[in-house]
Design brief:
27% strand, Immunoglobulin-like, 3-stranded antiparallel β-sheet, 15% helix, single chain, Type 1 dockerin domain, 4 helices
Length: 303
């Protein structure tokens, strides 16, 4: 079991520059096929270079690789953390002594402006993070025939990325010659585990995606399933510091008891819990000015 690599924020473009430097890319367009063959000036339209591409495709399809790559993991839309597990199996042969599993996170289909032709178009497979960029993070393969090696880790989705468009690209490369022997791509929204908690409800539709709750019960209608919702969002309204309520309809009660409870919170912030709505000014801080608003609320009838 390999530990894989930890997520690390890298400068934009670091993946491109690192990979380009491996092959001496001095300008674009440049095609580096399988880490071995190159075509410089591989521009558009592609059919103008058909005679250059076709032999490479035929040669590549006839090659046999000893490796198989399987990518699994879990993705919940809106959750920035994506855990993954990659299994490499060797079925025969020994192509090199310094082989590693490299992992890149890429975003696909980014609508952007292309300055040369002056048009908007979709950009394909833009590298976002190079999880095995640093030498100490390289996933070195130590396999014999029939053996498997597992690499696990996670990465964080930036707010500027479209999560559903992300892919994990895993490829096996000789670190001495930079030749690529096998690759695999997994869309995190389509190919990773679509039902993490196994309750039959897809992650992106599940109101409690990490806890099994096939009934999807949500009695306070806050779109958080009862199985993972510790807050009563009917009674939990701004100013109801002690979150008390009347009757089966849980009508919130806001009175002098809440003023006293709020004063206690100002003296000891450890008393604050995640369910309380006590930022009455909605300015991101909790202080005596919120207490003044609460006093006014109680004096006006508590509603």
């Amino acid at each position: 079991m390999g530990l894989g690599c930890s997520d690390e924020t890298l400068e934009e473009g670091i993946v491109y520059f690192n990979r380009a430097n491996l092959y001496g890319v001095g300008g674009i367009p440049h095609l580096q096929w399988n880490g071995v063959d190159e075509i410089v000036g591989a521009g558009s339209p592609w059919w103008d270079r058909y005679d250059d591409y076709y032999p490479l495709v035929v040669d590549y399809s006839n090659q046999q690789t000893p490796y198989d790559i399987e990518i699994t993991g879990a993705y919940i839309s809106g959750d920035p953390s994506v855990p993954y597990e990659i299994t490499v199996t060797q079925g025969g042969g020994s192509p090199g002594e310094n082989m590693a599993l490299e992992i890149v996170v890429a975003e696909d289909s980014i609508y952007s402006f292309w300055s040369s032709p002056s048009v908007y178009h979709y950009t394909r497979n833009v590298s976002r993070n190079y999880l095995t960029y640093h030498d100490e993070c390289k996933n070195i393969l130590e396999l014999s025939n029939g053996e498997s090696q597992i690499f696990s880790g996670s990465f964080e989705i930036s707010d500027t990325w479209v999560g559903d468009n992300l892919k994990i690209i895993a490829f096996i490369q000789d670190l001495d010659t930079y030749e690529v022997y096998q690759s695999e791509i997994a869309s995190i929204s389509r190919d990773l585990d679509p039902d993490v908690d196994g309750d039959g409800i897809p992650n992106n539709e599940d109101n409690c995606p990490s806890v099994h709750n096939f009934t999807q019960s949500d009695w306070d209608y806050d779109d958080i399933g009862d199985a993972c919702d510790s807050c009563n969002d009917i009674a939990n309204v701004p100013g109801n510091v002690n979150i008390d309520a009347n009757g089966t309809e849980f009508d919130p009660i806001i009175n002098v008891i809440d003023i006293l409870a709020f004063a206690d919170l100002l003296d000891d912030s450890n008393l604050i819990n995640d369910c309380q709505s006590i930022d009455l000014l909605e300015d991101g801080s909790i202080n005596q000015f919120d207490l003044v608003v609460l006093i006014d609320l109680v004096m006006s009838g508590g509603s």
